[in-house]
Amino acid sequence: MTRFRALVTGCAGFIGSHLSERLLSDGWQVVGVDALTDYYSRRIKRRNLRSLLSHRRFAFHRADLNRMDLDRVLRSIDIVFHQAAQPGVRASWGTTFHIYTDCNLLATQRLLEAVRGRRSILKFVFASSSSVYGNVRQLPMRETQRCEPYSPYGVTKLGAENLCQLYHANYGVPAVSLRYFTVYGPRQRPDMAFHKFIAAALEGKPIRIYGTGRQSRDFTFVSDIVSANVAAAIGGQCGGIYNLGGGTRVILRDALRILERQLGRPIRLVFEEHARGDVDRTGADTSRARRDLLFRPKTNLAEGLAAQIAWHRQMRAEGVL
Ligand SMILES: NC(=O)c1ccc[n+]([C@@H]2O[C@H](COP(=O)([O-])OP(=O)(O)OC[C@H]3O[C@@H](n4cnc5c(N)ncnc54)[C@H](O)[C@@H]3O)[C@@H](O)[C@H]2O)c1
User: Fold this and answer.
1) Nearest-atom index, ligand 1, CA of 130
2) DSSP structure class, residue 106
3) Do 143 and 91 touch, CB atoms closer than 8 A?
4) Residue 259 Cα to ligand 1 middle (Å)
5) Cα-to-centroid distance, 10 and ligand 1 (Å)
6) Of these residues, 39, 150, 153, 184, which one is catalytic?
7) Mutate to test the pocket of ligand 1, among 40, 81, 129 (most ligand atoms within 8 A of CB)
8) Share of the chain residues as helix, strand and coil, in percent rounded to the nearest 5
9) Is 153 a catalytic residue?
């Protein structure tokens, strides 16, 4: 099997750190870039990086994509996995929106500019999001349907995805966009629902639910997302867009019952006002990814949550969480 040289942006984050580890274990060389932004605790990001930093085929640049010398870093690269972004729907309103335009739009445009004309780059895999769809009436969500993002974050992810498409159409940049549906598992970001639920439950605190708790999500385990990234680097169609959903669409309240069973203790719920920008439900049509990427999610919600709980326990024992 060919061993490629990859650039992983956002390598200290939740998904980027798992992806970097997987590439190294497959024998790839990995250059990781991350600014260690302060969206959530840098202690967690440093912990995510720990095993990567000791690997001889991994090189780390702590740098901002909007300022660093991209030409230098791209010189030795075959495949780009662009995971870096300012995530989060709720924080994307108001005065912090400029961080979203900086990290999601401007940084992606700058990277695409640096990649265009470099024939050595075989694939540019972009981490897009189900948030590009918005509040749809009918499920499943299909790549061909009209996108109407429901949050400022979703607007920036759709804008970045559109940039990938047009750099492909105009300059032949071999871009592939992967629309992730609610990713979970060890290292999940602290602003995401399962992370908050497990953290609260382990501390014996009530869990805060926005809205009725009847909202549903197509939860996707992180290693299934990572495998799809690797498959997209090899077999993804340039200019293609692929939904990546775990295939277990679950109502939040039902997910909480699974958590309750696994934690072996009752969970108290507190209901809060519906969060603006949050959609009611998501569900992916993954037939394209099944066809081109042989995408077959392997981890069900119970297994995935068990792995995430184990990670929380370990991080609490280490004093990271
Ligand atoms: N987690 C999910 O459920 C989910 C769902 C849909 C899409 N996504 C997308 O997947 C990608 C990874 O998400 P995540 O959950 O791992 O987020 P994360 O915040 O854990 O990781 C993103 C990383 O990017 C870095 N970063 C941000 N701006 C940067 C910049 N300008 N220069 C260099 N580094 C920068 C951050 O420091 C962070 O470590 C993002 O593009 C996100 O939009 C995630």
Assistant:
1) 6
2) I
3) no
4) 25
5) 6
6) 153
7) 129
8) 45, 20, 40
9) yes
In 3D, which of 182, 171, 47, 191 has the Cα closest to residue 117?
Answer: 171
- Beta-carbon contacts of 152 under 8 Å, excluding residues fewer than 6 positions away, are 92, 93, 97, 100, 277
pLDDT tens for the 321 residues of the chain, in order:
568 999 999 999 999 999 999 999 999 999 999 999 999 999 999 999 999 999 999 999 999 999 999 999 999 999 999 999 999 998 999 999 999 999 999 999 999 999 998 999 999 999 999 999 999 888 999 999 999 999 999 999 999 999 999 999 999 999 999 999 999 999 999 999 999 999 999 999 998 888 888 889 999 999 999 999 999 999 999 999 999 999 878 999 899 999 999 998 888 889 988 888 788 889 999 999 999 999 999 999 999 999 999 999 999 999 999
> Structural domain of residue 138, as residue ranges?
5-318
Q: Which residue has its alpha carbon closest to ligand 1 atom 19?
A: 13
Out of 34, 141, 158, 196, mutate this one to test ligand 1's pocket (max ligand atoms within 8 Å of CB): namely 34
CATH of residue 37's domain is: 3.40.50.720
H-assigned helices in the chain: 14-25, 42-53, 70-74, 97-100, 107-115, 152-171, 193-202, 222-235, 252-263, 287-292, 301-318
Global pTM exceeds 0.85: yes
Nearest to 146 by CA among 158, 157, 160, 156: 158
Cα of 11 vs centre of ligand 1, distance in Å, is: 9
Residues enclosing ligand 1, CB less than 6 A? 9-10, 12-16, 33-37, 39, 45, 64-66, 83-87, 103, 107, 127, 129, 157, 180, 182-183, 189
Q: For residue 68, which amino acid is it?
A: M
The number of folded domains in the chain is 1
Residue 212 CB neighbours (<10 A): 12
